[in-house]
Write a structure and sequence with these properties.
By secondary structure, this protein is an alpha/beta fold. The chain has two domains: 235 residues, Aminohydrolase, N-terminal nucleophile (Ntn) domain (Glutamine Phosphoribosylpyrophosphate, subunit 1, domain 1); 285 residues, HUPs (Rossmann fold, 3-Layer(aba) Sandwich), CATH 3.40.50.620. The protein is built from 22 helices and 20 strands. The protein has a six-stranded antiparallel sheet with strand order 4-5-7-8-12-13. A five-stranded parallel sheet has the order 18-17-16-19-20, with helices on both faces. A four-stranded mixed sheet has the order 3-1-2-15, with helices on one face. β12 and β13 form a beta hairpin. α7 packs parallel to α22 and α10 crosses α17. The longest helix has 18 residues. The chain starts with a helix and ends in a 6-residue tail after the last helix.
């Protein structure tokens, strides 16, 4: 089961087993992915314990995608042990700070959000003589916000509990032995034994004294348990510590460098010719202007307004039957979150959410994913890359780029995320879902990235970046071939990952529906909708766009520094063309959004292991094209 589920998280692996008759609980956790952890002495010792116990009554396993606290400190890894509780937890508690404020405990200082849940459970039951299961679970659901799934063992009460706020937890009973998993596909003997999806108010509890378990609707049934005569002590078999990477970036100094460059660019580009209609500058590759000062991009613009309706979308999505689920790709950005809301709330369809986490998904985006899945009660299917490896690939390509800067090769920094098309189709098939829905906003399309690589996308003002003719794809490959020939730094371990990312993005067939082929995108409507979910904004900018993408503040600073514009300019230009903004409104937003974001820039360099100050200085030395 752990082997199947490892792709949900490669950052750490934890395990626990209980021999209730012998009053012995063992657990351990390693800062290693599962496929490496099983070769460790710690895991072999654990296996020996499980074998020696004959028939352990409880086995937990957890493959971690780190979201709170680094994996180097075992206190941040799963399972979590506190007092008489042992817990494994998938998800993110979005109100962690508020929950911890209500708990008087030393665990509040620990970064892992799981401790908020354990502390809350301890607070509810420590002084009680009876475990009021239904009451505690109702209070737990009310207090713990976001998409969260728990496997909980209480040594004090002799109980195991399975709880899910969004349905990312499956249960199977095989001859009175219970199996649970974050995904249905990991359960053994799926065809012979039916799997049940757990979702509050249905909660599973197993009483180890009576070796009996069951699922209860805690809003309709009042269940309680007395204290057993004796309980199993918690014994930790291993506690592995490794060195934790700590940021030493002087963000104030970095901010001065970035802001100084921004002011220089603003002054130096004041007299650069801009389109009288959309504000795109003459540094935009391949642009031309007519006698009235309007640009060639405006002349060829095709409106992004949908030709189909929301009713057409409903008819397409419900073809497999209104009870059949669809898959919604969820990055944690504003458009994917809006798409999930539309499918579930406005169309009333069942959905599972899918996320491909490639190492540049920010914790803010992950928290917004949790908010949406938790509030909408939507199962969250996650595919996590080997993040350490992916970040090494990005670092190698950024380092190569800095040695020989070329605007056309900047997309190499993002090549690692393009596999999401491949995995979206794979996850859809694995889970028997009949359609995949994405929220690709056509006004976000830039055009300049492919143009800097010597190619053009087809109908580039209204189509996606991967929409290119064969000849243009060959032009792009030729450009990259030349760049790789003159810059040996690109011949690194990322080559295969980059190539397969290219296949996934430019070659892999498109079988999904785009929400914005049916629903008009409007920034004000999207933002207003997400505010209903207490959607989180970044503290270092005012826009809601690209705040969940850790790469955007970095590459947009490069573009703005070298050519005097960025993605922000092209988004606002498209909004002008659609009649969403006036020239003056767009001008103010471009000025605001192109301001550098030092905290995000520092985070990007930190996780890659680059010196943010030196990288920023190197970017400012790249020759300008204005």
């Amino acid at each position: 089961m752990a082997k199947v589920l490892e792709r949900r998280g490669h950052d750490a692996f934890g395990f626990a087993a209980l021999d209730y008759a012998g009053r012995d609980l063992r657990f351990g956790k390693l800062s290693l992915p599962f496929h490496k952890a099983i070769r460790s002495d710690e895991y072999k010792s654990f296996r020996s314990f499980v074998s020696a116990s004959g028939k352990p009554e409880l086995v937990f396993g957890h493959t971690r995608l780190a979201t709170h606290g680094g994996t180097g400190d075992s206190a941040n890894n799963q399972p979590v042990v506190y007092k008489d509780w042992i817990v494994v937890h998938n998800g993110i508690i979005t109100n962690e700070k508020e929950v911890k404020e209500g708990i008087s405990s030393d665990i509040c200082a620990l970064p892992l959000d799981t401790y908020a849940s354990v502390g809350f459970l301890s607070k509810l039951s420590d002084s009680a003589d009876t475990f009021d299961f239904s009451k505690v679970m109702r209070a737990f659901n009310e207090e713990i916000k976001g998409a969260n799934n728990f496997a909980i063992y209480s040594a004090k009460w002799g109980l195991s509990i399975l709880f899910s706020s969004n349905g990312s937890l499956y249960l199977q009973n095989r001859d009175e032995r219970w199996y649970f998993s974050s995904e249905k596909r990991a359960l053994p003997l799926q065809e012979q034994y039916e799997a049940t999806q757990l979702l509050f108010p249905n909660v599973f509890v197993y009483d180890h004294r009576n070796t009996k378990g069951g699922i209860y609707d805690v809003t309709k049934e009042e269940i309680s348990f007395g204290m057993p005569e004796s309980s199993a002590p918690l014994k930790e078999v291993t506690k592995v510590q490794t060195t934790e990477y700590t940021s030493h970036v002087n963000v104030v100094e970095l901010g001065r460098i970035l802001e100084s460059e921004f002011r220089f660019v603003s002054d130096a580009t004041k007299n650069v010719k801009r389109c009288t209609k959309c504000l795109l500058p003459s540094t935009f590759p391949g642009i031309a202007f007519d006698s009235a000062g309007a640009c060639s991009i405006c002349a060829g613009y095709q409106s992004a307004k949908p030709k189909l309706s929301k009713n057409d979308l409903y008819n397409r999505l419900s073809k497999g039957g209104t009870q059949d689920k669809v898959l919604v790709s969820l990055s944690g950005g504003r458009d994917s979150c809006f798409t999930l809301h539309t499918v579930v709330k406005e169309l009333g369809l069942k959905a599972s959410a899918f996320t491909y986490d490639w190492g540049m998904v920010t914790d803010l985006a992950r928290r917004n994913q949790s908010r949406m899945c938790g509030d909408l009660k939507v199962e969250h299917l996650i595919v996590s890359a080997d993040i350490e490896k992916k970040r090494k690939y990005i670092k190698d390509n950024v380092s190569a780029w800095l040695r020989r800067p070329s605007l056309g090769t900047i997309p190499l920094f993002m090549a690692g995320d393009k596999h999401y098309f491949y995995y979206a189709e794979k996850v859809k098939k694995e889970n028997g879902l009949h359609l995949n829905v994405m929220g690709e906003n056509k006004l976000e399309k830039t055009g300049f990235k492919t143009r800097f690589a010597g190619a053009e996308q087809s109908g580039e003002n209204s189509s996606m970046a991967y929409s290119m003719s064969t000849s243009n794809k060959l032009k792009m490959l030729s450009f990259y071939g030349t760049e790789f020939a003159v810059n040996p730094g690109y011949w690194n371990a990322s080559l295969w990952d980059t190539f397969t990312g290219y296949l996934s993005y430019y070659v892999y067939p498109r079988t999904y529906l785009n929400l914005f082929d049916y629903v008009e995108w409007n920034e004000n409507v999207v933002d207003a909708t997400l505010k209903r979910y207490d959607w989180e904004y970044s503290p270092d900018c005012e826009t809601s766009w690209r705040i969940g993408d850790g790469t955007a503040p970095f590459y947009n600073f490069i573009y703005h520094s070298v050519v005097g514009f960025s993605e922000n300019d092209t988004l606002r230009a498209n909004q002008i063309r659609e009649g969403h903004l006036t020239i003056d409104q767009a001008k103010a937003l471009i000025e605001r959004d192109n301001h550098p974001r030092p905290e995000s820039f520092a985070w990007y360099c930190d996780v890659l292991g680059l010196d943010a100050i030196e990288v920023a200085k190197a970017i400012t030395r790249v020759p300008k094209l204005y």
